[in-house]
Please model this.
Amino acid sequence: MSAFVTSDLHLGHAKMLDFVRPDGEPLRPFSSIEEMHETLIERWNKKVHEKDRIYILGDVAIPRSGLQLLSRFNGKKILIKGNHDIYKIQDYLPYFEDIRGAFFRGGDSTMPGGLIFTHVPVHPSNLQGHYLGNVHGHLHCHLVLTDDGKVDRRYFNACLERNDFEPVALEDIKAYFKANHGRASDV
Model:
C-alpha cells in the first residue's frame, strides 16, 4: 500500500478551463470539462491503486454534482477541506474515509520535524520549530516565495497544475523535503 497527495481537482468546474497562467497559457489545457475529467481519472488510476491512501488537499468539486465522479477514482481518499469544499458533510462521506481541516505527518529518523498538510499554505512563522514543511494546495500554478522573490522550499504545492495533473507519491514529497530542507532558490 502506498500513499499519494493531490489538490484542487475542481471536478465539474467548467470555468476552470477559462483561467490562465501568468504567461497567458491555459491553466488547464483541456478542450472540455469531460476531457479534463477523463484525463484526471486516467492519470490518477495509473498511479493510485484501490488499497492506496490518497490525501486530497481541498477543492474537490464545484458544483456538488462533481463529487459523484470520485467513485471512478481509485484509492482510500482522505479530504483536507479547502475553501470551495462548502457542501454538507453528508455529501462528502460516501467518497471519503475521513475528512479533516489539516493533517500532520510526524517525522522519523530520516526526516525529523514532520510535515503539515493543508489546503491554503500556512504562514512561515507557523513552520519554525514545529514542522519541516507544508504540503498544500490552493495556489494552482503558483509557488510560495520568500520576501526576496525566491521559491520557499519549505512548501510543496500539490496542485494538479504543478504535478502534470496527477497525484504525487508521498515518498517523492518526503524526498523533496529531505533534499531542500530550509532552502530557497531562484524562481
Helices lie at 33-47, 89-92, 170-180. The chain has one domain: 3-185.
